[in-house]
Specification:
Layout lengths: L10 E7 L5 H11 L9 E8 L5 H18 L2 E8 L2 H10 L10 E6 L11 H8 L7 H12 E12 L9 H10 E9 L15 E8 L6 E6 L8 E5 L1 H4 L15 H9 L13 E4 L11 E2 L6 E5 L4 E2 L2 E2 L11 E3 L8 E3 L3 E5 L12 E4 L8 E4 L3 E5 L7 H12 L1 H7 L10 H6 L5 H11 L6 H13 L9 H17 L9 H11 L17 H12 L8 H14 L3 E3 L15 E3 L1 H7 L7 H11 L3 H12 L1 E4 L5 E4 L7
Parallel strand pairs: 1-2, 1-4, 2-3, 4-5, 6-8, 12-19
Antiparallel strand pairs: 5-7, 6-7, 8-9, 10-20, 11-15, 12-15, 13-14, 16-19, 17-18, 17-20, 21-22, 23-24
Helix pairs in contact: 1-2, 3-4, 3-5, 5-6, 8-10, 9-12, 12-13, 14-15, 15-16, 18-19
């Protein structure tokens, strides 16, 4: 994080709001002190705010360590430690209350703000409103106050959840932030849990670097799985790709690779808003805990269908569902009449997706032909597409559901949505094909359930015409990566190798492009650099140059151990420092992988695994063999793992 700072200033006035034990302040000071003399500041003035008094002694020691680091580098250092509530203290300073300290302004800020909802009637919310900040989460409140405390030209570096990038609740914050700050860099962690694993924050997380008062310009977008992961995508994009001109919601799109940009290009023909195709989307009317006395586990003559996400099945609504713990019906009476809608054809979308679901948007058609009840209730965890409260034409509904369920739309949606919620506002912000094209797609879909590949093929054929677009095929790329992961899992590779890096390495080793065939895969001789060139050319994944060794150490090495790859089959005597060092898929593995997706796969896989030990077993044996037996003075024996030191 600290390396994102530019800070060509003689005096750095650094703010750390919610400092904890001072780790971020220490990182910033260490980074500044390590710069060449000509780039070092002459002085650093650090201000740290912390509410938890139990860790203030640790924070104080960290600031003392910072002073020592600066003294050794010839930099003047001073620290101001404020013990208290940053939101209240900063709001008082900005408001200029009678007893408040004068607002101090900064030219640098680094923070990891707390994540917590703010009640609309709380003291925090009232204090924020007094200084023009409207937000429902504490982390956005911290960021907004820091923005107000920065001087023009001041730099902000922060790690936060990604949820502020979209959604109606964060719109006022986005307006405040984007009006004041120019984004310079965004780094996204793809894992929803690793960066904030201890805080139960189930969404992707980002590090942002922005400059106050600067003109918008190119934004460097980088991505990796989690902190400490060296496998980093990097791409520089114009600001207009991050915040699209004319977007009233000012969603922030994070696209770290060429394939992501290709997604937007493929959907460029979808230009219509929901009102332009005469469609509305609303949340389901039935809030179950408020209608508890009217809910029924099983339908009876006085009840009508009540539809939950649990009733989704293959793009349709399967009702009733005897296996769900949710109610299947709601009594129709005067108290519930306003919660029900007429029997018709509707498109439903889950408002929350689970971590296990491959798609963020999951849609289904509620068909009137399959449900005879005159009215129906849709539970509040659903978004409902309708026309002025009534249903949709059936072909149109089928086409709309297929469009929403397509891999292409899923890839696009993930560019601005980094959490598990699918808000109605997000769906309203998206652009759609014409009503005629959606109806034509629906007629092709028909009644028969289709798998994901068939849905994607029809969406491409009817709506996208991706073959006319230059660049990698985003849908094919996603599918091939998923298939490669399926193969690696079937071969018994451990969790550490079940990632995109390993999938792309396998695809490069087999020369399988997004539209390529497993049956026609081959086994070229490849070094690490040609593998990475293949990933960039065919899958749009351009990685930082320093990730080359990550591929070698964390994927290729394991593939060799597992028997997937062999080293230098053309010249086994080649020394390891030879630039011609290369790898090739082993013949037995190649024969197996050519059967993937065929009826012969399962049988061939069983035979292969019987003859080649899985990587997990190899690891266990390798660890046991490399442990060194040591006899203790009392005669007991222990085994120690060998160290990594040179002899």
């Amino acid at each position: 994080m600290a390396e994102m700072f530019i800070l060509p200033k003689p005096t750095v006035r650094l703010l750390d709001a919610g400092a904890g034990v001072g780790s971020l302040t220490a990182a910033a000071v260490a980074q500044l002190a390590a710069r060449p003399d000509a780039e070092q500041p002459s002085s650093i003035e650090a201000s740290a705010y912390e509410l938890d008094e139990t860790i203030v002694p640790d924070l104080s020691r960290t600031l003392s360590d910072c002073a020592a680091v600066c003294a050794a580098a010839g930099i003047e250092f001073s620290a101001d430690l404020q013990v208290g509530d940053f939101v209240k203290l900063a709001a008082e300073q900005l408001e200029g209350g009678l007893f408040a300290r004068p607002a101090r302004h900064f030219n640098a800020a680094i923070l990891n703000p707390p994540y917590r909802k703010i009640n609309s009637a709380s003291d925090h919310r009232l204090a924020l409103r007094a200084v023009g900040v409207e937000t429902s989460n504490l982390y956005a409140a911290f960021l907004a106050l820091v923005v107000k405390l920065l001087d023009d030209g001041g730099e902000l570096v922060a790690i936060t959840p990604r949820s502020f990038c979209n959604g109606p609740y964060f719109r006022p914050f986005r307006e405040l932030f984007l009006d004041a700050m120019a984004l310079r860099r965004i780094h996204v962690f793809d894992s929803r849990s690793d960066a904030f694993g201890d805080d139960d924050v189930l969404q992707e997380n980002v590090i942002i670097h922005a400059v106050k008062g600067a003109a918008p310009g190119p934004v460097v977008v980088t991505s990796n799985c989690a902190p400490g992961d060296e496998w980093t995508l990097r791409r520089e994009v114009p600001f207009e790709e991050v915040v699209q001109p004319g977007d009233a919601e000012r969603f922030i799109h994070i696209v770290p690779d060429v394939v992501g940009a290709q997604v937007a290009a493929c959907l460029s023909a979808c230009r219509l808003s929901l009102p332009e195709i005469d469609v509305e989307v609303s949340t389901g009317r039935v809030v179950d805990f408020r209608a508890k006395e009217h809910l029924r586990a099983e339908p009876d003559p006085q009840s009508v269908p009540l539809i939950y996400p649990a009733h989704f099945a293959g793009g349709r609504v399967a009702w009733p569902n005897a296996r769900t713990r949710k109610p299947n019906a709601i009594v129709r009476c005067e108290a519930t009449e306003s919660l029900l809608v007429p029997r018709a054809d509707y498109v439903l979308v889950k408002r929350f997706s689970s971590k296990e679901e491959r798609r963020r948007i999951v849609a289904a058609v509620y068909g009137k032909a399959e449900h005879a009840a005159p009215v129906v209730g849709f539970e509040n965890h659903l978004n409902v597409f309708h026309r002025k409260g009534a249903g949709l034409p059936l072909d149109f509904a089928r086409g709309l559901a297929a469009f929403l369920n397509s891999t292409l739309v899923d890839l696009f949606f993930r560019q601005f949505n980094g959490h598990t919620q699918v808000n109605a506002t997000d769906l309203r912000t998206m652009r759609y094909p014409s009503a005629a094209k959606l109806a034509a797609l629906g007629r092709k879909i028909g009644e028969a359930p289709l798998d994901q590949e068939a849905v994607d093929a029809l969406v491409e054929q009817e709506l996208i015409e991706m073959s006319r677009k230059a660049g990698p095929d985003p849908v094919g790329a996603k599918r091939k990566i998923e298939q490669a992961l399926e193969i690696l899992k079937a071969l018994g590779l451990p969790k550490g190798q079940l990632n995109e890096r390993s999938a792309l390495t396998l695809l490069a080793s087999l020369n399988v492009a997004p539209r390529g065939s497993w049956m026609k895969c081959d086994a070229p001789l490849l070094g690490i650099t040609p593998m990475m060139d293949f990933m960039a050319k065919h899958y749009g994944k351009t990685y930082a140059p320093n990730t080359r060794e990550t591929v070698r150490r964390q994927t290729v090495h394991q593939f060799v151990q597992a028997g997937l790859l062999v080293e230098n089959p053309d010249d086994p005597s080649r020394p390891i420092n030879n630039p011609k060092w290369c790898y090739q898929v082993a013949p037995a593995a190649l024969d197996l992988l050519r059967t993937f997706g065929t009826t012969a796969w399962e049988h061939q896989l069983a035979g292969y695994l019987a003859s080649v030990q899985t990587l997990k077993d190899k690891y266990a044996r390798a660890r046991a063999m490399t442990r060194i037996p040591v006899t203790l003075p009392d005669g007991g024996e222990i085994k120690l793992s060998a160290g990594g030191q040179n002899p």
